[in-house]
């Protein structure tokens, strides 16, 4: 998955899963903290919390388990369902990038020479 491949998968109605949600889940997995994950992404804690809550409500099994802060310092854990979703997303993105690479090269060659994204 490359940073310039903003592939978003439409799952159901308005529910989409794309690079932002994937990055949040990955950072939760590596930090063990919703607050730290949000900070690393320069996202407010509230926005990250709402995103996780929304995902947990829309899937059959929760993707992230959250525990409250306070003296115990709380935490966030990516569940097996969350890891599976992240793995499936990465597989889909890799397949899409591979399938679209030849057309993308040709499209970039069609760009004007002064266009910042023109590549050979």
TrEMBL record:
<dbReference type="InterPro" id="IPR036388">
    <property type="entry name" value="WH-like_DNA-bd_sf"/>
</dbReference>
<dbReference type="GO" id="GO:0003700">
    <property type="term" value="F:DNA-binding transcription factor activity"/>
</dbReference>
<dbReference type="InterPro" id="IPR036390">
    <property type="entry name" value="WH_DNA-bd_sf"/>
</dbReference>
<feature type="domain" description="HTH lysR-type">
    <location>
        <begin position="23"/>
        <end position="83"/>
    </location>
</feature>
<dbReference type="InterPro" id="IPR000847">
    <property type="entry name" value="LysR_HTH_N"/>
</dbReference>
<dbReference type="Pfam" id="PF00126">
    <property type="entry name" value="HTH_1"/>
</dbReference>
<protein>
    <submittedName>
        <fullName>LysR family transcriptional regulator</fullName>
    </submittedName>
</protein>
<dbReference type="InterPro" id="IPR051815">
    <property type="entry name" value="Molybdate_resp_trans_reg"/>
</dbReference>
């Amino acid at each position: 998955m490359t940073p310039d491949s903003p592939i978003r998968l439409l799952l159901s109605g308005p529910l989409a899963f794309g690079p932002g949600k994937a990055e949040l889940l990955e950072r939760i997995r590596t930090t063990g903290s919703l607050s730290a994950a949000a900070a690393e992404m320069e996202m407010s804690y509230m926005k990250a919390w709402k995103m996780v809550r929304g995902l947990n409500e829309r899937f059959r099994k929760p993707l992230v388990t959250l525990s409250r802060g306070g003296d115990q310092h709380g935490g966030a854990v990516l569940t097996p369902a969350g890891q599976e979703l992240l793995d499936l997303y990465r597989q889909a993105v890799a397949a899409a990038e591979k399938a679209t690479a030849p057309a993308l090269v040709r499209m970039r060659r069609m760009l004007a020479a002064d266009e910042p994204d023109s590549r050979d």
